[in-house]
Amino acid sequence: MAKPVVRKPKKKANPLKTAKIESVDYKDTALLRKFISDRGKIRARRVTGVSVQEQRQIARAVKNAREMSLLPYSSSAR
Question: What tens digit of pLDDT does each residue of 45-68 get?
């Protein structure tokens, strides 16, 4: 009996590399909104496909943008 073939899922393309963005800025809210869910949570690395260092930069930028009232802490819709 042959073993079933287990295929690994294809790795996601890094959206920051494809857009040629080398640093994440808290003032770029259009970019940061791509990494936030509709409920206002920061999306996980495995969902977005960014590296560990880039995920840290994104998290820090989102938190700074929220502090400056550029992004909401959570969505108002319930």
Answer: 999 999 999 999 999 999 999 999
At residue 24, what is the residue type? V
Residue 69 CA to residue 50 CA, distance in Å, equals 25
Residue 56's domain comprises: 24-68
Q: How many domains does the chain have?
A: 1
Task: Quote the DSSP letter at residue 42.
Answer: B
CATH number of the domain bearing residue 49 = 4.10.640.10
Quick one: which of 48, 18, 46, 11 has its CA closest to 32?
48
The pTM (predicted TM-score) of the whole model is 0.80
Cα→Cα distances 56→26, 34, 50, 59, 75, Å: 12, 15, 10, 5, 22
| CB contact at 8 A, 57 and 24 | yes
